[in-house]
Amino acid sequence: MKILSTSIEDVKIVEPKRFGDQRGYFFESWHRAKYKEAGITSSFVQDNCSMSRYGTIRGLHFQLVHPQAKLVQVLKGSVYDVAVDIRVGSPTFGQWVGVELSEENGRQLYIPEGFAHGFCVASEEAVFSYKCSDYYMPEDEGGILWSDPGIGIEWPNVESVLSDKDQVYPCLADIEPSRLPKYSGSGGGA
Ligand SMILES: Cc1cn([C@H]2C[C@H](O)[C@@H](COP(=O)(O)OP(=O)(O)O[C@H]3O[C@@H](C)C(=O)[C@@H](O)[C@H]3O)O2)c(=O)[nH]c1=O
Question: Which residues are the signal sequence here (predicted)?
Fold first, then answer.
């Protein structure tokens, strides 16, 4: 597998080694020892899968007291996946990374704790699968408006389909810093 860096330290692109043959393909989507060797040491406790139709944007989501590092990938279709550094005190606070994840390119994105995460579906449908380092706790969930002009994410030009809650999240600059994760140095996420 290959690890590629991004413009934000700690956010990493993973390219698992894919073995193709006449039947199709095989790849290891998670291997604790190999990922640890590559610097991804999160203890994942929950796996999620969602299917979304073309134009769907999910996000931007985070958990505050129980932050989740995520290892995300697309099993069918294609998405534009985004991680925003919302760790107060981080040298890259407010910056974002966007990466195309698709069944075709087989890429995964590792997003440490303390980031807001979202994605936009660029194919007819997308099956999105991810590991989380802490459990889902709806009462701990926070969100940031996907189109926050202060962040300025360059989403693909699609007609966006959003959940009710995702339409009304505040902009990053309107959130009290005490309601955001704190930066505690590179490598440790939040
Ligand atoms: C995320 C999640 C949702 N649910 C339930 C709650 C709700 O009834 C239904 C749909 O939830 P949501 O609308 O929050 O799903 P969704 O918008 O897909 O939420 C996800 O978005 C992406 C961008 C992330 O980064 C994830 O961490 C998660 O926040 O599924 C769970 O039971 N467990 C979970 O872990």
Answer: none
